[in-house]
Design brief:
Pfam families (chain A): Peptidase_C12, UCH_C
Strand content of chain B: 5-15%
Shape of chain A: globular
Distance between the termini of chain B: 30 Å
Largest sheet of chain A: 6 strands, antiparallel
Family (chain A): Belongs to the peptidase C12 family.
Strand order of the largest sheet of chain A: 1-6-2-3-4-5
Enzyme class (chain A): hydrolase
Distance between the termini of chain A: 33 Å
Order of helices and strands of chain B: HEEEEEEEEHHHHHHHHHHHHHE
Structural class of chain B: alpha+beta
Oligomer: heterodimer
Number of helices of chain A: 13
Largest sheet of chain B: 9 strands, antiparallel
Helix content of chain A: 40-55%
Largest interface: A-B, 47 and 66 residues
Structural class of chain A: alpha+beta
EC number (chain A): 3.4.19.12
Number of helices of chain B: 14
Radius of gyration of chain A: 23 Å
Keywords (chain A): Coiled coil, Hydrolase, Protease, Thiol protease, Ubl conjugation pathway
Chain lengths: 387, 510
């Protein structure tokens, strides 16, 4: 599995949301889930008072091996999924794959995050797809369900139709060689890599703790047959992990269904996890959800429409939530700027300033002492955990 | 290792008419001649976030020298003959302190240079900055390494001549050789009467009374005994003062004839500056002796003992050089012109300096006081991402995972954990890219402490360029401020010392 020209990117909701927006997709953001329990899942579909049908387009489960006893490398996914551990189905191939379900094999390791994200976006129920030719959809002319329908954007719409008849591995290749997708992905790579990574032409890679050597698996609902599918690029095809009620038809899934499919996915994830001792795996869970600002604004509008005053607590709550969302976006923007920025000149200048302070020896000692203490604490911690 | 080299060069050149100290690059027989020089200043190129380089003049008054180097190849113990090597380098010397600050090798060199490797393609050309009156020149080596200079002589009419001269010597080694007054026969000269290993003979063409070298006896490499003989020869003053390059050549002898007091003094000074105890009964030691006492002791000891410098003394001093615990010099001795040597204390067992990310912790930052220094703050802010160039953002950035990560990656690059072709590659390319002088970190690097080496290089570089802050905010001694407008630090040389280049130079980021 080559890594040509794809750098690794950080697994962070801000990064992923910006990445998605850079494809031209709208109405989506990425949220991190801290727990898999029912409450956590409901909070996605019922995030605020008065909204109980917020869209959740898919879940992405990231995991990586921790301990040295693992068989690392590309086999991780297969090892974890194993023999369909937990009684899941077999990967579907060829004609068994439900029509309209987009699945791609993973070809480039570093692209795995983007690949999983695409797996959700291109399978999002009822998304607005922009089409070329006679069927041109003028962007402003559709009903996006007040943000519940994801707007795919031209790049991804074109990509989807271009690859619609491809087999999974060819689709994976198509992702790997898509200029626009790769460029968007790489714009989130680390700026210093080119300088510090030895050969500037080669995206560096020895995995370190810092690194995003995660494996990504996506879970999506497929309305066509009311089933939930697990999309793992390292397997030959999608795996059906269960069904939810009321799938099919136009319009966004109802509350029960929305909650339903997620529970099915959650159960599948838990059975996967249960096969391994928790100390060995580090994992994250992310959800691709409707842009929060859209339903906040909708709520605002409906409160105004029924005559609620600005001073009313309900109104104040919504306004403050909206402000919090804007602040979050602002923070994401700053963080992304920092991720793109080459801090090497800054870092060296910073060290020079310290050197010029006249107290360098003392500062070096301080730094050394701190490092030593950290080491001691970490060793004590390891001992306490019985390692 | 400029002071160690001062030591050796004093010894090898004692008796010659040259007054300035020239660094020698090895211990036996290497001869250096400056064949062209002109007043010039250095310039520093800083990489800006917008992808361009900002090139600013270093205000120190200096000279660029083209130096022809010749000498024996470092002999291996198996060989019975040695050949000469000749190489060419440029040196930038500070006219005020009379020291050589930078070395730029431009042709085959057997040992280290400023930037770690040798190369054979070099050009020296005028740069069009778009402004009339700028006299900016670029030394470019191997198409990658670039050093900018600005002409400092008030008279611009000889600029072209100097430029042509530099290129001519680079391109034509024989020209350079003859300018150095050296006759080279086929580039390889083997001369030996007894067949034992000898240094190659190069007879100065203009010399009148030099005696041909007799063989040194069975020398074991370029070793301590060679060194000692050189010292003895130098101090004994057997070499007459001839112009041009000479080899020190002296019959071996174990004891030292009368030493000139001045030379011993100079020797003592150098050893003292290295933080080593005085010569004469010296043991390798790490303690730093107070300046005055050592010099006196040295002089007294050696003169009264009749200049009894023994091999043991020298070996001790040299050994002490390699293993001395370097001491922070700048704060304790305010009067010494240079603090001497590496200034970061090496770590206790566990090697190397602290991981660089530790410096970004708030207690270190607060203790340093740099955020209260408007100069530091403005320089740092410049290098932040667009849209985050404020003091508050500066604090946030310093705390950010991105800065910590960058420092961590810098640390691993220095330590060589990254996927480099050779272990030392990280340190060298980092030093080169930030225009630091690798010699400043050579001791620490040799001891296997690249982080410490890097910090030493930074510290020395800051000393040279910006000056270390004193506790009282007295900046008058601050020479060499970058990009300064005023004429401070002048010694009345006359105001119009040539236009200096400034501003953005459009260079492709390589």
């Amino acid at each position: 599995m080559s890594n040509d020209d794809w750098c690794t990117i950080e697994s962070d909701p801000g990064v992923f949301t910006s990445l998605i927006e850079s494809f031209g997709t709208r109405n989506v953001e990425v949220a991190e889930l801290w727990s898999l329990d029912d409450d956590a899942l409901s909070s996605l579909t019922s995030p605020i008072e008065g909204v109980d049908d917020a869209a959740v387009h898919g879940l992405i489960f990231l995991f990586k091996w921790q301990s040295s006893s693992s068989n690392g490398g590309g086999d991780e996914g297969a090892a974890i999924g194993g023999d369909g551990g937990g009684g899941m189905g077999e990967p579907l191939t060829g004609d068994d794959v439900p029509p309209g379900l987009f699945f791609a094999r993973q070809v480039t390791h570093n692209a795995c995050a983007t690949q999983a994200i695409l797996g959700v976006l291109l399978n999002a129920p009822n998304s607005v797809v922009e089409r070329d030719g006679a069927d041109d959809v003028v962007v402003d002319d559709y009903d996006d369900g007040n943000g519940r329908r994801l707007v795919l954007g031209k790049t991804l719409s074109d990509f989807r139709s271009f690859t619609s008849h491809f087999p999974p591995d060819l689709r994976g290749e198509a992702i790997g060689s898509s200029e626009s997708i790769r460029a968007a992905h790489n714009s989130f790579g680390r700026a210093e890599d080119a300088f510090l990574g030895g050969d500037p032409g080669r995206p560096k890679r020895a995995a370190t703790d810092d690194d995003d050597v995660f494996h990504f698996v996506a879970y999506v609902p497929h309305d066509g047959d009311g089933c939930v599918y697990e999309l793992d690029g390292l397997r030959p095809g999608p795996i059906r992990v269960g069904s939810y009620e009321g799938g099919g038809g136009d319009g966004p899934p109802s509350t029960a269904e929305a909650g339903g499919w997620m529970r099915v996915a959650r159960d599948a994830i838990q059975s996967r996890l249960s096969a391994y001792p928790s100390a060995e795996i580090k994992f994250n869970l992310m959800a691709l959800v409707q842009d929060r600002r859209t339903y906040l604004c909708e709520r605002l509008d409906s409160l105004v429409a029924i005559g609620i005053e600005e001073s009313d607590p309900a109104m104040l709550r919504v306004r403050s939530d909206l402000r919090a969302e804007e602040e979050k976006r602002e923070r994401w923007k700053l963080e992304n700027e920092r991720r793109r920025h080459n801090y090497l000149p800054f870092s060296v200048e910073f060290l020079r300033c310290l050197a010029g302070s006249g107290k360098f020896e003392k500062l070096v000692d301080m730094a050394r002492t701190n490092a030593g203490e950290k080491r001691k604490r970490s060793e004590a911690w390891k001992k306490a955990r019985g390692e | 290792m400029s002071n160690a080299q001062d030591l050796l060069s004093i010894l090898s050149n004692a008796g010659s008419s040259r007054s300035s100290i020239r660094p020698a690059s090895s211990t036996s027989g290497i001869v250096e001649t400056s064949i062209l020089s002109f007043k010039a200043g250095k310039m520093n190129a800083t990489f800006k976030p917008n992808g361009k380089y900002l090139v600013e003049p270093d205000m120190r008054r200096g000279e660029l020298h083209v130096v022809y180097v010749s000498g024996p190849r470092p002999a291996s113990s198996a060989s019975t003959s040695t050949s000469t090597t000749s190489s060419l380098k440029l040196e930038w010397r500070d006219r005020r302190t009379k020291t050589t600050v930078n070395t730029y090798w431009v042709a085959a060199n057997p040992s280290d240079d400023d930037n770690g490797t040798t190369d054979d393609v070099a050009t020296f050309e005028r740069v069009d900055t778009g402004r009339d009156g700028d006299r900016v020149y670029l030394l470019e080596r191997s198409g990658r390494r670039r050093n900018f200079f600005w002409m400092q002589d008030a008279d611009a009419s000889r600029d072209d001549e100097h430029c042509v001269g530099v290129n001519a010597y680079i391109a034509n080694r024989n020209e350079a050789a003859s300018a150095a007054g050296i006759v080279v026969v086929d580039d390889v000269v083997v001369a030996s009467s007894s067949g034992a290993a000898t240094a190659a003979v190069v007879r100065p063409s203009s010399s009148s009374s030099s005696s041909p070298p007799s063989d040194y006896g069975a020398a074991d490499d370029v070793g301590a005994s060679e060194l000692l003989r050189m010292m003895q020869g130098a101090l004994s003053g057997t070499t007459s003062s001839a112009d041009g390059a000479r080899l020190v050549s002296v019959p071996g002898s174990a004891t030292l004839p009368t030493a000139g007091a001045g030379q011993v003094d100079a020797l003592g000074n150098i050893l003292e500056n290295l933080g080593l105890p005085g010569v004469g009964g010296a043991r390798p030691s790490g303690e730093r002796n107070p300046a005055a006492t050592t010099t006196t002791t040295t002089t007294t000891t050696t003169t009264t003992a009749g200049g009894g410098l023994t091999l043991a003394d020298l070996q001790g001093a040299m050994a002490g050089l390699a293993t001395a615990s370097p001491v922070l010099g700048s704060s304790s001795s305010s009067s010494s012109s240079s603090p001497g040597f590496p200034v970061v204390r090496p770590a206790p067992a566990g090697g190397g300096g602290p991981p660089l990310s530790e410096f970004a912790s708030s207690d270190v930052i607060d203790a340093s006081g740099i955020l209260d220094d408007p100069d530091c703050v403005s320089r740092l802010i410049e290098l932040l991402p667009d849209g985050q160039r404020t003091v508050d953002a500066l604090r946030e950035n310093l705390r950010s995972p991105q800065v910590a990560q960058c420092l961590r990656r810098l640390t691993s690059a220095l330590v060589g954990e990254e996927d480099n072709d050779d272990g030392g590659g990280g340190f060298n390319s980092i030093i080169a890219n930030f225009q630091l002088n690798p010699e400043d970190g050579a001791v620490a690097l040799a001891a296997g402490n690249p982080i410490e080496a890097f910090l030493n290089c930074l510290l020395r570089d800051v000393e040279r360029k910006e000056g270390i802050r004193e506790e009282n905010v007295d900046d008058d001694d601050n020479d060499g401020g970058v990009g300064g407008d005023d004429d401070k630090g002048g010694d009345g040389d006359g105001g119009g010392e040539g236009a200096k280049g400034d501003g953005d130079v459009n260079m492709d980021e390589s």
